[in-house]
Amino acid sequence: MALSNRVVLLCLISMASSSGVPTLKLNNGGKMPAIALGTFLGFDQNGPVKSQNKQLRDVVMEAIEVGYRHFDTAAIYDTEEEIGEAIKLKIKEGAVKREDLFVTTKLWNTHHKRSQVADALKTSLDKLGLDCVDLYLMHWPIGLNKILQEDYTHSSTDFMETWRGLEDAVSLGLAKGIGVSNFNREQLQRVLDEGAVKPVALQIEVHPQISQKELVTFAQSQGLVVMGYSPFGSLVRRFGMMFPGPRIDDPTLVKAAERHGKTTPQVVLRWLVDRNIVPVPKTTNFKRLRENIDIFDFALEKSEIEDIDKFDSKTRFTLPSFWQSHPYYPFEKVENPIADPFVKGQK
Ligand SMILES: NC(=O)c1ccc[n+]([C@@H]2O[C@H](COP(=O)([O-])OP(=O)(O)OC[C@H]3O[C@@H](n4cnc5c(N)ncnc54)[C@H](OP(=O)(O)O)[C@@H]3O)[C@@H](O)[C@H]2O)c1
C-alpha cells in the first residue's frame, strides 16, 4: 500500500467494532460506516421497481448478517418499510443493536415547506419503525407541488427554507445528522453560509465516469463526508440500458483486479473508499452482497487511482432534465429534456 494511502486510511478511518467495516467520523460526533447498501430498486417499463414477496427485507437481513451496518433509503424509494422490518427482526434475533446500525433516508421534493419537513420524516420513521434516523438528507434542492396524485409543478420554495425544516428535525430528536444530496457547489456553499446546523454529509453520483473531484474536495474540506451513489457507473446494466464507458471487463480495471485478487466491481468500490467517499452500491443478489463489502483488506496504489480517474467524462446517469427549468436545478442543462419516470403517462 502506498504511504499516502496508508496515512489517509489511518487518519480518517477507524475500525468499527461489530462488523469489521471501518467508519468515518462525522462533524456532529457520530460515525458513518464506510459502505452503505443502496435500496433504490431501479426502473423498468412500468416505472420504479417495487420489492416483491419481501425480497428487499430478506436482502437487508442477509446484508446485516454479512456485515452491512449502513442502509440508504428515501421516502420516494418505497423501501423504508421492508428495511424497518428487517432491522426489527435482526434486533429481535440479537444479531445487532439499534446503535450498531446507521440509517439514512431522504426528504422528497414535494415536502419542501419548512412546516412539512418534520411530518415527512415522522412518516418515514413510522415506516422504518425507528425513533430517529442517523442521517436525513434533502434529496434534491428542487421543491415540487404535488397538485394531483401523479402530477407535479415546480415550487419556488427556497431550499434554505427546507434546510430550516431539517434543522427542526435535529432539534426534535428525529435525526441525528442532516445533509444534502444532488446539490452543486454554490448550493452547498449557501447551506454552509446560511445554515445554523452544519450538514454532515453530501450524497452525489460518483463512479469512474464522473469522479466529481472538485465537489468532493470542496465538501471534504468543509468537514462533510461524501457518499457516492451509482458507484458502478457503466460497468453494469442499469434501467435495462448499457451506458457508454468502461465495462466490467475493462482492461485497466481487470489489471488492477488481478493484481489485488479482487473483481472489477470491488476495484471500483475501493477507488471510492480510497478517496474517503462512502460508496452506496445496490444489489439484491446475495453473492454480490458479500462481494461488494469485501473491499476493506486492500488499497489501490496512487497510479491505479489515477488510471481510473482518466475515465472521467463528467457523465451523469441521474440527469433529471425534466426539472431543468426549475430555479434550483443543480446540473448542466441539455437540449432535449427527458420525461419524468415518476410521473405516469408522460412521454
Ligand atoms: N441521492 C440520489 O439521488 C440517488 C440517486 C441514485 C441512487 N442513489 C442510491 O445509490 C444506490 C445505488 O445506485 P444505483 O442502484 O443507481 O447503482 P449501482 O449500485 O452502481 O448499480 C446497481 C446495479 O449493479 C448491479 N450490481 C451490484 N453489485 C454488482 C457486482 N458486484 N457485480 C455486477 N453487478 C453488480 C446490480 O444488480 P443486482 O441487484 O442484480 O446485483 C444493479 O443492477 C441506490 O440504490 C440508492 O440507494 C441515490
Main features:
about 350 residues, alpha/beta, TIM Barrel, eight-stranded parallel sheet, three-stranded antiparallel sheet, 11 helices, 15 strands, globular, disordered N terminus, binds NADP nicotinamide-adenine-dinucleotide phosphate
Brief digest:
With 347 residues, the chain is α/β, with parallel strands linked by helices. 34% of the residues lie in helices and 18% in strands. It has helices spanning 3-12, 55-66, 80-93, 114-128, 159-171, 185-194, 213-221, 251-260, 264-273, 286-293, 302-309, and strands at residues 13-15, 22-25, 31-33, 37-38, 43-44, 47-48, 70-72, 102-107, 133-138, 143-148, 151-155, 175-181, 201-205, 225-229, 277-280.
Describe the structure.
With 347 residues, the protein is of the alpha/beta class. Helix content is 34%, strand content 18%. The protein has helices at residues 3-12, 55-66, 80-93, 114-128, 159-171, 185-194, 213-221, 251-260, 264-273, 286-293, 302-309, and strands at residues 13-15, 22-25, 31-33, 37-38, 43-44, 47-48, 70-72, 102-107, 133-138, 143-148, 151-155, 175-181, 201-205, 225-229, 277-280. The chain is globular. Residues 1-12 have low confidence and may be disordered. Residues 38-40, 42, 72, 139, 181-182, 203, 229-232, 236, 238, 265, 280-285, 288, 291-292, 318 line the site of NADP nicotinamide-adenine-dinucleotide phosphate.
